[in-house]
Amino acid sequence: MSILIKPIITEKATNASERFSRYTFVVKKDANKIQIKDAVEATYGVTVESVRTLNHPALRKTKYTKKGLVSGLTSGYKKAVVKLAEGEIDFYNNL
After folding, report:
1. Bridge-partner residues for 65, per DSSP?
2. Which of 8, 32, 65, 87 yields a CA-CA distance of 20 to 30 A from 54?
3. What are 72's strand-pairing partners?
4. Tens of pLDDT along 7-39?
5. Based on C-alpha coordinates, what's the Rg of the chain?
């Protein structure tokens, strides 16, 4: 199974990709930086300069409604920000 789950396409991530050639992905929780670098290079055929990772924790949310207290849980995920080398092309066109 692939290390890369899906790209994150938000306003902030798109701005970083256009200005600094940094692309953001949701990755498997047990993946390390070397595995993420190899997966991006193999999938898109680009040269990766650096990889930054961060873990978003699962958040518990509660709210009061007419039926009483309702609680829920948002899932946690791992995010990787990949910086490409100078002169690489935009690889979101391959999606």
Report:
1. 68
2. 87
3. 61
4. 999 999 999 888 898 999 999 999 999 999 999
5. 17
